[in-house]
Amino acid sequence: MEKVIKEKSTNPIPVHVAIIMDGNGRWAKSRGLDRSEGHVKGVETVRTITETAAEIGVKYLTLYAFSTENWNRPSEEVMLLMKLIVKAIKKETPDLIRNNVRLKAIGDLDRLPVESRESLHESIRATSECTGLTLCLALSYSSRWEITEACRKLAALSKDRKLTPQEINDSTFEAHLNTNFMPDPDLLIRTGGDRRVSNFLLWQLAYAELYFTPIFWPDFTADHFKEAIKEFQSRERRFGLTSEQITQ
Ligand code: IPE
Ligand code: IPE
Ligand code: MG
User: Fold this and answer.
1) Distance (Å) from CA 58 to ligand 2 centroid
2) Please, which of 42, 117, 142, 225 could form a disulfide with 68 given CB 3.0 to 4.6 Å?
3) What is the pLDDT of residues 101-141, one digit of tens each?
4) Has 108 been annotated as catalytic?
């Protein structure tokens, strides 16, 4: 499959893939299970997709794991998700190191329960020297939160006369986003059948290719992921230019 991807490619392998991992609850419901079972199964998919992304040469994989709005779900579900996150991070850290994967996180991490935050920071520290795939977890993340935070920081700099309003441009703005250590996503995948971005990377997705699949996240396999990559490779990215300019 990787061979097919490389041979038929128009675009190279995307450098940065972002995923809205959706459909855990509906996956569980369709099997008569509790929503929590869907989240447990979803963690296995995270593992598979991380390994596959590293294998095919993706450099950055950003996974939307928990949104700002998800804090408003029933408290039992929120608590379960937080527990699962700690458990998965602790369990997976040795394998992340073995596979040369560097863990990062974006979002309002101060809102996470102490235990989740500590295990997250511990794993981020432990993998900080890894040079392969960067796995970025979006946790307690929403794009509007991130953008307003950036505005706040720029306003403070301006107030302290460290930055003039004229100096605010695309790159000074981007430097104040949580994602300032990564290039913009080339490909956004959303599983679970809905076609929306749900407050995810609104600024950064400006020129990403969007890929929606009805497959629920717990059922999303390495082959489904490779299918999305193949579809990405068949698209013509024009970045505002004409097709002729691009092919020249
Ligand atoms: C995605 O699955 C996981 C999180 C948002 C944490 P959902 O829990 O949103 O599953 P559905 O969309 O209800 O099926
Ligand atoms: C988006 O899924 C957030 C995550 C996958 C973490 P949601 O299930 O929260 O999105 P909506 O509510 O369907 O837009
Ligand atoms: Mg959902």
Assistant:
1) 24
2) 142
3) 999 999 999 999 999 999 999 999 999 999 999 999 999 99
4) no
